Amino acid sequence: MGLLANIFTWWNGATIGTSLFSRRNGASVGSDALGNAYFQAKKADASGRVRRWVIYSGSNDASRVPPEWHGWLHGTTDLTPNELPQQRRWEKPPAPNLTGTREAYRPAGALEAGGKRAAATGDYEAWSPGQ
Predict the structure, then answer these.
(1) What is the CA radius of gyration of the chain?
(2) CA atoms of 51 and 124, how far apart (whole Å)
(3) Which of 62, 111, 113, 116 stands 20 to 30 A from 4 (CA)?
(4) Over the stretch 35-72, which tens digit does the pLDDT of each residue have?
């Protein structure tokens, strides 16, 4: 199913067309710790901008792009993370979006967390339009 999935689906990674386009029209710039590959167009467009894109290794989830590569993709910096100074001690490693997974944040009172919420404290006074 791997070859058919690459031909017909885009959500499980790059399609064959995207992979061929990337190799033909783009130059590989680098990759990150998650295995995502980053490309830059060989030629600038009519406005002088150079197109940049990522080929995900796995599911297409933008939260899997580390912050330093996100900045490069969006033109915030022209330096690739390989050219940037080392990570500062206060910076944390990137975390994926956990929405929809078992590890997602569920506050007290959420149905998935048992549906129990703290009792009201009595400081609430309901508004009535006739007052």
Answers:
(1) 23
(2) 55
(3) 62
(4) 898 999 888 888 888 888 888 887 777 888 888 899 89
pTM metric for this prediction: 0.60
Helix ranges, the chain (H)? 2-8, 16-25, 67-73
- Joined together, the tokens standing for residue 91 give 């910076």
Q: Which amino acid, 84?
A: L
Q: Is 84 left (phi over 0), alpha (psi -120 to 50) or beta?
A: beta
CA dist., res. 93 & res. 91, Å (int): 7
Query: CA-to-CA distance for 23 and 123, rounded, in angstroms?
Result: 64
Backbone torsions φ then ψ of 114, nearest 5 degrees = 110, -15
56 near 13, Cβ under 8 Å?
yes
